[in-house]
Amino acid sequence: MITLNVNGKAHQYDDDESMPLLWALRDILQYTGTKYGCGKGLCGACTVHLNGQPVRSCTLPVSAVGAQKITTIEGLSESGDHPVQQAWQKLNVPQCGYCQSGQMMSAAALLETNAKPTDEQIDNAMSGNICRCGTYERIKKAIHLASDLAIEVKGVK
């Protein structure tokens, strides 16, 4: 039995410990915002945070997670007011939207470590996330906007 800490809630997991975290989240715990893309950790659609760091949940076995803190797109903000979520909505970033939860999780992790990233830093941080619709420029603009929004919330300009 493993206790998974997802979005601040403890969940008892008594299933196949070699199961990828993605399937435990989606199929067992019903956190369906995290998406399956490639199943090889290459596209980023399945990105979640593990202790604040972006990881690919499709290749990470549950046994490697243990009691570490997992944050899914549902846990980024209870009311949808995280600066990344606000920026994505304001700029209407998604086209099909399938990859966007992974994009947003990677963006949120970037902004936690770099409050005001340059275009090059954004490109580097987001390079592992694929958007088949090609919304990369809107994503970059949204990350800059989210940075500004986060700075405004903190009262720093």
Description:
- There is one protein chain.
- By secondary structure, the chain is α+β, with helices and mostly antiparallel strands.
- Helix content is 36%, strand content 13%.
- It is built from five helices and five strands, in the order ββαβββαααα.
- The protein has helices at residues 21-28, 83-90, 100-113, 119-126, 136-153, and strands spanning 2-6, 9-13, 47-50, 53-56, 69-71.
- The chain has a five-stranded mixed β-sheet, with helices on one face.
- A hairpin with a 2-residue loop joins strand 1 (2-6) and strand 2 (9-13).
- Helix 2 (83-90) packs across helix 5.
- The longest helix has 18 residues, at 136-153.
- It is globular.
- The termini are far apart.
Q: Order of helices and strands, N to C?
A: EEHEEEHHHH
Radius of gyration over C-alpha positions, nearest whole angstrom: 15 Å
Q: What portion of residues is helical?
A: 25-40%
Mean pLDDT: 95
Number of strands: 5
> How many helices does DSSP assign?
5
Strand order of the largest sheet: 2-1-5-3-4
Class by helix and strand content? alpha+beta
Q: For the report, how would you describe the main beta sheet?
A: 5 strands, mixed
What fraction of the residues are assigned to beta strands by DSSP?
5-15%
Distance between the termini: 47 Å
Shape: globular
Query: Low-confidence parts lasting 5 or more residues at pLDDT below 50?
Result: none
